[in-house]
Amino acid sequence: MTAIVEPMMLSGREVWPLVEGGKGVAVSNGHSAGAWAGAGGVGTVSGVNPDLVDRNGDYVPLVYQGRDRLERHEELVAYSIKGGVSQARIAHETRNGEGRIHLNVLWEMGGCERVLQGVLDGAKGLIHGVTCGAGMPYRLAEICARHEVHYYPIVSSGRAFNALWKRAYNRFQDWLGGVVYEDPWLAGGHNGLSNGEDPKKPQDPFPRVLELRRIMRKVGLDDVPIVMAGGVWHLKDWKDWINNKDLGPIAFQFGTRPLLTQESPIPPGWKRRLMDLLPGEVLLHRFSPTGFYSSAIRNSFLSKLIGRSERQVEVAEEPDEAAGRTVFFPYGRAGRGVFMTAADQASVAGWAEEGFTQAMRTPEGTLVFVAPAEAKEIRRDQLDCMGCLSHCLFSAWKDRDDHATHRLPDPRSFCIQKTLMEVAHGRGAPADEQLMFAGHAAYRFRQDPFYANGFVPTVRQLVQRILTGH
User: Fold this and answer.
1) In the chain, at which end, N or C, are there fewer CB atoms within 10 A of the end residue's CB?
2) Do 266 and 400 belong together in one domain?
3) Does 151 share its domain with 265?
4) How far apart are CA 11 and CA 176, in angstroms?
5) 113 conformational bin, left if phi > 0, alpha if psi -120 to 50, beta if neither
6) pTM for the full model?
7) pLDDT in tens, 68-123
8) Which DSSP symbol is given to 325?
9) In this structure, are 141 and 60 located in the same domain?
10) What domain count does the chain have?
């Protein structure tokens, strides 16, 4: 079967319209991105806490020396810049003059603008475009235009792009390389669901992308590509999109499939789990400390978070007859406590028999109940915060002003930096006890004959497979 897509101009060069999705915290690195570009597509280096590799090719881990969050945050920003530059060099050398290399950053990561500018300064000429999502990156266009690289905002609706365009991007039109539409119900990692959208009722992406194109055409962006991301597996599934005059030029981003390649740096346990997934085993949830919805493999890590939130009761500081919260529960300093309903008190007693005896207050004033060892780990992780996000629900860190959100840290969430670093490097608990991001089409690894008998392709083999319609 011949290829069903044609080469397209992306970031200043004609390439296959196949983009490697950027996966943060050392998962989409210079080797994977360089291999994807070397196969004629667009490879993406993650700028989200990338590994620093020295000139000898050795990984240099970040060992924090800072005594407080701000000092550790500064260490993380400096390390991320060095790591991003080192990964860009690897990608440049690996691509062997083919394809394009993009850098992926999350606007809500701690110190994002500083990291982005630092990597672009240090990797001048090695990066051709920047993709950015997880928030509203208004300053992305200005930064990229100043460095003469193309920018690719990630949006989940035409309305979001319209806001970006009107406020900032209209002044930097020449460097807009494309607009990434990321399906908020199907994509892996963090998702852009709005408060008005139901996470349990997925919408057809076609009319949403058609609306995005309509908005783009109104401002003269007829020929700027839209990159479809989320749920992309076989190009034959998208044959009605390709060469569709109503949609205009369309490229496709693959986030999950590149995880299962020889160049992918994720550990063997994560790769094995991807091969065994069944439909429905990727969960769209809202436990992330970013506050965004995100999609990850449903495993013991997520089960623990689900259980933690289910063991939750509403309480009052004083007896509340109208709400039935009249049962005293000792909490806090000696002689102090809160009031809950009799039914909730019975639930709390049952949880205590199961070992969940430690109450922890949430920002909403509720109490969740965990085992003492788990409570100790939560507090330890909150104290060890290194400021990886711009705003963190879990630790109440903020990367500006007085560096605090002034809300209670939320024990229903988790330290995302800790678990992602551990699972990416095969450290700490087994992979199934860590957060493993994946898109909702990941169950297709098990069904696709390409992966029969545990076959793990090279990136080049995967790109060729995609180009032949599979």
Assistant:
1) N
2) no
3) yes
4) 9
5) alpha
6) 0.93
7) 999 999 999 999 999 999 999 999 999 999 999 999 999 999 999 999 999 999 99
8) B
9) yes
10) 2
